[in-house]
Each structure stands twice: as C-alpha cells, then as structure tokens.
C-alpha cells in the first residue's frame, strides 16, 4: 500500500514539473525526451544525475542562463522563473528517467 502511495506521489510530482515547464516556456526549446533547440530533459538528467551539486547547478542555469554546456546554443536567462520554481524544475528534471 505504501509503495502505491509513493508511486502515485511521484507521478503527481512529475506531472506538476512538466506543467511548470510548460507554463514557464521551457518546452519551447526543450523536449522531455528529445532535443529541440536545447537538449531534452531526460538527457540533462542523465548527464547531471550523479553530480551531488546538480540541483543547485541546474537551478542557477535555469535562472541565469548558460552557454557551452551543450554546444554553442545559448540558454538565455529566465527572469520569469522564481528561485523556488527553478529548484522545482531542477528537481523534476533530475527525477526523470534517463533516455536509453
């Protein structure tokens, strides 16, 4: 019973993360499973998952932007994303399964 509740909670968090990504415009450049302009979120998760500082690093990249992490494409800063939302997005990304 506890496992079912945990799985349901995880699915709910994933749904909320994707909804936040959509609301904040992230899905204009990033796919969940594939690359559009920027890398897919599952690819980002695979690259950063083993890094203990990944949450904070992704949070910063979301808010401040970055360049050079995935080629020459610039990730612009996202001032419409609050610090709390950036943390939620980073946590959601890192919880995604890796692409095969």
Briefly summarize what is shown.
This protein is mainly alpha-helical. It has a single domain, classed as Cytochrome Bc1 Complex, Chain D, domain 2. It has helices spanning about 1-25, 40-50, 55-65, 85-95; strands at about 65-70, 70-75.
Please tell me about this protein's structure:
It is a single chain. With 100 residues, the chain is mainly α. It has one domain: Cytochrome c-like domain (Cytochrome Bc1 Complex, Chain D, domain 2), CATH 1.10.760.10. It is built from 4 helices and 2 strands. It has a two-stranded antiparallel sheet with strand order 1-2. A hairpin with a 2-residue loop joins strand 1 (66-68) and strand 2. The longest helix has 22 residues, at 2-23. The radius of gyration is 13 Å and the shape is globular. It starts with a helix and ends in a 5-residue tail after the last helix.
The H-and-E topology, N to C, reads as HHHEEH
Q: How many domains comprise the coordinates?
A: 1
Question: Helical content, roughly?
Answer: 40-55%
CATH C-level class: Mainly Alpha
Shape: globular
CATH homologous superfamily identity: Cytochrome c-like domain
Strand runs, count: 2
Distance between the termini: 30 Å
Largest sheet: 2 strands, antiparallel
Low-confidence stretches: 1-12
Question: What fraction of residues sit in β-strands?
Answer: 5-15%
Given the helix and strand composition, which structural class is it? mainly alpha
Under the CATH scheme, which architecture would be assigned?
Answer: Orthogonal Bundle
Tally of helical runs: 4
Please name the CATH topology.
Cytochrome Bc1 Complex, Chain D, domain 2
Radius of gyration: 13 Å
What is the average per-residue confidence, as pLDDT, rounded to a whole number? Answer: 84
């Amino acid at each position: 019973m506890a496992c079912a509740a945990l799985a349901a909670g995880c699915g709910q968090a994933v749904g909320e993360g994707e909804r936040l990504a959509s609301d904040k415009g992230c899905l204009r450049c990033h796919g969940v499973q594939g690359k559009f302009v920027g890398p897919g979120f599952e690819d980002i998760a695979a690259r950063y998952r083993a890094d203990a500082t990944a949450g904070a690093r992704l949070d910063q990249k979301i808010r401040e932007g970055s360049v050079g992490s995935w080629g020459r494409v610039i990730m612009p800063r996202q001032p419409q994303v609050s610090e709390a939302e950036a943390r939620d997005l980073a946590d959601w990304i890192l919880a995604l399964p890796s692409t095969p």
